[in-house]
């Protein structure tokens, strides 16, 4: 995990230039930067967006807000034992935005709690999904999943509602598994600039598999 944190530090210090006509991606990126900057205040870290020399060109680097985000406390409240790598990450970062070919926002505890309160799942059994990241303005989410044998992996789901906790947590539904651990997921996101969201490109949906190429901006330079 320490090696991954070094990669993150390096990435924050190296802005990347993206060329994109005004559209969902550029608008969403600007909104996320503004929201996280206002929320983080003095704890805000990372390069600010700067307009490039050409119209529709902008520079970004990963954006983080440092400081423990109470994810571990929330997990204990829910009875969901967090894996060591994710817990270590959360002890340093409250929020993190991967500003790459996909826009991926790692949630703090408040975001996670707000999401959980919207679930229509009886709580007479332990929580099996702990959503930790999402694509802004989209229903796509990444979650830690606790399987019946106690293993915790990372799953990806697109639809919200059709793909609920019982479906994704079923041991017959391993098609949602995208990475074996949080560290593996984070390293893949750093190495691929946040795309593809799911290994192989296609993503699991309630109706089978789907393509989401409309979310892929040009590769950074």
From TrEMBL:
Residues 209-221 have a biased composition (Basic and acidic residues). It comes from the Bacteria. Residues 201-221 are annotated as: Disordered. This is SMI1/KNR4 family protein.
């Amino acid at each position: 995990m320490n090696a991954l944190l070094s990669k993150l530090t390096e990435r924050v210090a190296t802005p990347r230039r993206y060329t994109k006509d005004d559209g969902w991606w550029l608008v969403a990126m600007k909104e996320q930067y503004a929201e996280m900057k206002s929320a983080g205040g003095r704890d805000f870290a990372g390069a600010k967006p700067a307009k490039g020399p050409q119209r529709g060109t902008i520079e970004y680097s990963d954006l983080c807000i440092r400081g423990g985000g109470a994810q571990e406390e929330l997990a204990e409240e829910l009875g969901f034992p967090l894996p060591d790598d994710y817990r270590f990450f959360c002890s340093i970062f409250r929020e993190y935005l991967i500003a790459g070919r996909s826009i991926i926002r790692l949630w703090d505890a408040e975001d996670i709690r707000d999401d959980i309160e919207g679930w229509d799942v009886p709580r007479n059994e332990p929580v099996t999904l702990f959503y930790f990241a999402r694509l802004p303005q989209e229903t796509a989410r990444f979650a830690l999943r606790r399987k019946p044998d106690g293993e915790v992996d990372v799953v990806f789901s697109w639809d919200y509602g059709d793909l609920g906790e019982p479906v994704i947590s079923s041991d017959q539904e391993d098609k949602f598994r995208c990475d074996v651990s949080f560290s593996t997921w984070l390293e893949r996101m750093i190495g691929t600039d946040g795309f593809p969201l799911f290994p192989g490109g296609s993503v699991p949906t309630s109706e089978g598999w789907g393509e989401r190429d409309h979310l892929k901006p040009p590769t950074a330079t």
